[in-house]
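Chapter review: from sequence to fold.
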Amino acid sequence: MPATGHLLGLLAALPAPTKTGERFWSDRWRSSGTAYLLPVNIKAPVLRSLAGEGTALARQVLSAVDEMTPPQRVAAGEVIGQALVESDHLPDLKSQVIGELWLRDLELTAWRVLHADRRSDHPAGRKAFLDAWTSV
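The token string follows.
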């Protein structure tokens, strides 16, 4: 599913969860107030997503975003944006803007993964949809 690949791509843009990326993940955790997206908590869903099953990761992402207060979201966006500015060499854009765009993209992509999964394999639902639209 393309949305699952995009979700993984967004995570791949962040510092890797290695010793060198440890500070980023720690700062992101403190700023956001949520541990949902710590590498230890998303490792299994990330690995399942790499195998094509992205719903667990998408649910984890939406839980993390839902848990953040507006100030925490701003603070997390700043940490994320700073990491992206450094890695993507985007000095002409404010890190807060980049971080907020990244968070919005992550959130919407997670929604797409869940929404597409919810309706993709239900023949009765597809038939009801077709019947409703053909009778209009």
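Two observations follow directly from the output. The mean pLDDT is 89. DSSP finds seven helices and no strands in the chain.
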